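Provenance and format

Records in this collection were gathered into a single text stream. Each protein contributes a sequence line and a token line. The two records reproduced below are adjacent in the stream.
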Amino acid sequence: MATLRQLRKQQDLTQVQLAVAADVSSSTIYHIEAGKVRPRPSIVRRLARALSVSPSDIQSGDMSHLEHTQAQES
């Protein structure tokens, strides 16, 4: 599994470009990559679609410090 940041950079996308492609806010991308929020399954699916990967290929980063924080859909 790769982190969202790794997958995004492999495709030479900025956070804003990925946000537009996935129809989420750029702050959502930032917070997921920073490990500040755990994305909802619907957001993971959008991100996977935008990156042409399986949702299971996306690991949001180190989220061991999180409780049950969820990224809000924009």
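Adjacent record:
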Amino acid sequence: MKMISVKAENILSVGYDLKDYNLHIIFVSGKENIFFHVPMNVYMELIHADSIDDYFADNVFMKYPRREL
């Protein structure tokens, strides 16, 4: 899985696992989370959002099960 750098205040990079539909987020703080069962369109909308931080807060965080690595 390839991670891509994004321009956001709180998120450093994101990646998407096509096989398992998991969204990987690395935060500026260094923490990494995996969000499970995220549809690909949510990933695409996230990386193309005007504000990645706002999109993440509104559409990903607390909406999908997650695990911190």
